Amino acid sequence: NLGLAYQAGDPRIVALLEDAGNTLGRAIIHLISALNLNRILIAGNLTGCGEGFLTPIQGQVQNGVLPALAQPTEVGFATLGDDIVDEQEHTAGRQQSGNTGDGVKSGCQAV
Fold first, then answer.
1. DSSP one-letter string for 40-94
2. pLDDT per residue over 19-28, tens digit each?
């Protein structure tokens, strides 16, 4: 899984998480600029990758938003766990296709 590969220092996974974090960080910049948000919480399986995913996001926000907006903005992980995303995926899958889903998780798992 990605979490184990990241912890083992696999350079491809480290680069992948950094790139994903930078991309999400750039998207979050637009949310902060447009909506003047002061807290953004990220949920889902990739949160299990920890700092390897969060640090690039926070770096993009600090460097890409006006200082007056970046200072009071907290970007972090939701503490609700993976179940919040699993339930949303499960519900969306049933609504779209009538499928109840197979419960398979992807992304980083907390280890």
1. EEE-SGGGGGTHHHHHHHHHHHHHHS-HHHHTT-EEEE-SS-THHHHHHHHHHHH
2. 999 999 999 9
